[in-house]
Amino acid sequence: MLIREPRLADEAAVRKLLGRVEFTGPDDAEEIACLAARNHRLDPACGVRGAWVAEARRGDVVAVVAAAPPLGWVGSIKYMSPEHRSWVVNQVVDIEALSVAPEAGGRRLGHRLIERASAYYRGLGYRLMMGTFTTSSPFLTAYYRQAGFTVLEPGESIVIYDPLGMALHRPSAPHVVQGWKALHPDVAVVDTYLPDGTPIKLITEVLVPQDGEPEAVLNDDGTLTLKKDGASHTFEAETADKMRQMFQTPVTQQEVAAIAEEAARYGIEPVVAARLRKASGYSLRELVGTYSH
Ligand SMILES: CC(C)(COP(=O)(O)OP(=O)(O)OC[C@H]1O[C@@H](n2cnc3c(N)ncnc32)[C@H](O)[C@@H]1OP(=O)(O)O)[C@@H](O)C(=O)NCCC(=O)NCCS
Questions:
Q1: What single string gives the DSSP state of each residue in 165-193?
Q2: Which atom of ligand 1 is nearest to the CA of 97?
Q3: Considering the entire predicted model, what is its pTM?
């Protein structure tokens, strides 16, 4: 069995395979088949699409997997800046569809396709793969677990720790089951609580600074050195302390939403604005006024 990227001539076969998938979102077989067969590339700011097919010895395409960054979900989170969205969709990818023809079934071909997709995205620096299915196919729980996924309860949200906004929740409908798979060894789960006391499992080390980010070193005397491309800048201890305090101040989505409009006026990222406000105790106006002197 040959696993390769799709070609234009595969479109009809891919469409037929995808016709067997019960989609959980607005995606549909026609559109995904069309994008997959054309190896459609997204703007890099939107992350990377990928698709692979399995070709049997006779040349028939008998299985397909299609993966894409979760653009719809990330786009629905109102407080995110375009840069923040771009950061997420370059580290988190979704399995949009997986299908194996009945005549090729029984050999876990789907697992091989998921493995191919995982290796590709891992190589690109992606850290988390997500997948969804409906409760009408309960066997998929065991199937995805065997493929290395942590499968949640029906209706349970995926919650990813976001250093810029505390947590990103991907909700799911009651009949939808979500699962996730780490593509990086550092990805871990932390048991914690929402501000209202609800326990949640937070997936951490998914959203991390990319190669282009400066390296931050906290020195013994409390000063903070940021280094990038051979250049470095050291902040005095008091400033470093304030920065640390700000970044350690958790903010809720409500706090971010409440400040979003004002933050936009000053050109400040809403999450950062909410943290600044909370950590300092000052209003944005007072803070901006202070900094502009
Ligand atoms: C899910 C799917 C890709 C698995 O194909 P595969 O990799 O070839 O897997 P296998 O055929 O080797 O089967 C895996 C297991 O699932 C079971 N299974 C497969 N289809 C099943 C069905 N319709 N009902 C119940 N169990 C089923 C198999 O019996 C096997 O069980 P086992 O662990 O006891 O041996 C394939 O069944 C399919 O294309 N289904 C329709 C589309 C779909 O649901 N896609 C997944 C969501 S995007």
A1: TEEEEE---TTEEEEEEESSTT-EEEEEE
A2: 48
A3: 0.77
Question: Ligand 1 centroid vs 140 CA: distance in angstroms?
Answer: 7
- Domains of the chain: residue spans and CATH: 2-204 (3.40.630.30), 215-292 (no CATH)
DSSP symbols for 49-104: -EEEEEE-TTS-EEEEEEEE--HHHHHH-TT--HHHHHHHHTTEEEEEEEEE-GGG
**145 Cβ closer than 6 Å to some ligand 1 atom:** no
- pLDDT tens-digit readout, 113-146: 999 999 999 999 999 999 999 999 999 999 999 9
The pair phi, psi for residue 268, each rounded to 5°, is: -110, 140
CA dist 47 and 234 (Å) reads 33
Nearest CA to ligand 1 atom 35: 106
Q: Kindly report, residue by residue over 209-254, the tens digit of the pLDDT.
A: 666 666 778 889 988 887 766 777 788 888 788 777 777 788 888 8
Rg of the chain in Å (alpha carbons):
22
Atom 33 of ligand 1 has which residue's CA nearest to it? 143
